[in-house]
Amino acid sequence: MKTGKIALITGATAGFGEACAARFAKEGYDLIITGRRAERLAELKQQLQEQYAVQVTTLAFDVRSREACTTALGSLSAEWQAVDVLVNNAGLALDLSTIDEGNPDDWDTMLDTNVKGLLYVSRIVMPWMKARKKGHIVNIGSTAAKTVYAKGNVYCASKAAVDALSQGMRIDLLPYNIKVTAVHPGAAETEFSLVRFKGDADRAKDVYKGFTPLSGEDVADVVYYCCALPAHVCINDLVVTPTAQANAYYIHR
């Protein structure tokens, strides 16, 4: 059943973003899905429209570019700007290396995507929510925001920034009846490790050996739960891990 609500989800071509798109569509939300892979967005649009009879609009752009964010989101009609839920999901980790041996290009990509991309998109969408005096922003963080681990340095810093920005958003948007939730997933088997290890499938698979990790659908269920609570209830900060994981460092295999 259609809700008349709109969810905007960044990084929707895979992993948490794709799962969130499916979850919100299942609940009757119309969707704005963004990502860099236009073909994958088109496929997902067709799939969700056929399966759930919702309206889906796609925006193919890279959140690292402020100009691209402004152009793409600025192209939305007033009807589509009535965003009820923004899921800032676009993000990635690259490599595992000590900070003295890290690749500055990887640093730039992580910080530009995980921190600046989140800011660029939010800066455009927040005034739309303020004008309507309602909305919910969900920022996808990580257990890496809470516990720094060896060779995680810049990735951990980027997710700690997401944590801090979520707290800042919650405070600054309080007068406008806008909810802000940070969801921090632990080990989840998506494309995350494959991207981190730059296509090394064997190395990516080893990350999840010996325990049952989260799935994208698990995280999407948590995100939707946070957004489905009564209007007067807001989960500000939520850490979700597999049962076998205590934090970013401790996993029982």
From TrEMBL:
Q: Name one Pfam family in it.
A: adh_short
List UniProt keywords, sorted A-Z.
Oxidoreductase
Q: Where is the signal peptide?
A: none
Return the InterPro entries for the record.
NAD(P)-bd_dom_sf, Sc_DH/Rdtase_CS, SDR_fam
Q: Which Gene3D superfamilies match?
A: NAD(P)-binding Rossmann-like Domain
One of the record's GO molecular function terms: oxidoreductase activity, acting on the CH-OH group of donors, NAD or NADP as acceptor
Superkingdom, taxonomy of origin: Bacteria
The family this protein is said to belong to: Belongs to the short-chain dehydrogenases/reductases (SDR) family.
Do you know which PANTHER family this protein is assigned to?
ALCOHOL DEHYDROGENASE
Q: What is this protein identified as?
A: SDR family NAD(P)-dependent oxidoreductase
Source organism of this protein record: Chitinophaga lutea
